Amino acid sequence: MNILVTGGAGYIGSHVVKLLGEQGHTIVVLDNLSKGFREAVLYGKLEVGNTGDRELVSRILRENCIEAVMHFAAHTIVPESVADPLKYYGNNTCNTRNLLECCKDAGVEYFIFSSTAAVYGIPGTAGTVSEESETRPINPYGTSKLMSEIMLRDLCTATGMKYVALRYFNVAGCDPDGRIGQSTPEATLLIKVACEAATGKREKLKIFGTDYPTPDGTGIRDYIHVVDLGTAHLAALDYLHAGGESTVCNCGYGHGFSVREVIDTLNAQLDTPVRVEETDRRAGDPPSLIADTRKIHELMSWQPEYDDLHEIIRSALNWERHARF
Ligand code: UD1
Known about the structure:
By secondary structure, the protein is α/β, with parallel strands linked by helices. Helix content is 38%, strand content 19%. The structure holds uridine-diphosphate-N-acetylglucosamine. Uridine-diphosphate-N-acetylglucosamine binds at residues 76-78, 116-118, 141, 168-171, 188-190, 193, 205-208, 219, 221, 259, 282, 285.
């Protein structure tokens, strides 16, 4: 298939480009390289630019006879979205609207959208959310993504374009071959930050809150290996291509680990444990956030291969030690 991947030079997008390339698809990456890396694009052609540039996007769609779009390009830092909401509504929502208009005009058939568990906000006490759970985002990042989901749904109802929105839980880990990885500047995600602390790039790791109503008092999340998240995109495309209806799916493993469990798993791979400081809770963090994953398993033949916290951390640490960019 001819596929446009926006944000294909970024962390998750570049891993998906690698998987698509290995499957023999023809790929065009559109990335403005604000957070992405040219070297991360292992397959296809790279066009440098913005998804909001309608002339550029229309030309790319037309010249390459694009049949499917995978849309990763977005800002993703929650506290930044609180401080600068228009940046998030501009890039994540308005630019998605522009991209969708170009897709409509060009007759693109399939659209895979990078959504997020942040659309759920603070879940109920069980901490597990299904696609039918209420969506009540508590920050502009989550809202900007939810607004895009809604636009996509309505456009697809009107035009017959088919879409899957994948709601990512906590993505972590890196390509097992070590060719690409996560080099996002000013990272905030736990496993990335912990690996930076483990390799001396940070002085210490802060634990945000030790008084949550969880067994060890720290927050629990559903960490999914980036390669499994990548194969979920391939499964979603196959599903649509086989005639599947537009839908929204959670992407996680369906079970969680606490911050302390993550740190213990990391320390087991180190000669010297990481320096840890216990601090107050971070605003807006739910105690527990775990995916109900029944839907993606029922609809798409997705088989995760790396449902193993040790392996997720091993690959992230390997990248942190031998990053190529
Ligand atoms: C992250 C993303 C969010 C995304 C969601 C689901 C951010 C800030 N959040 O949420 O955009 O929608 O995944 O994919 O980018 N923690 C520490 N110390 C740290 C960092 C984190 O204790 O230095 C704790 C947090 O309090 C939380 C857990 O680790 O309990 C995970 O946090 P993090 O990796 O930042 O991800 P989320 O905030 O869950």
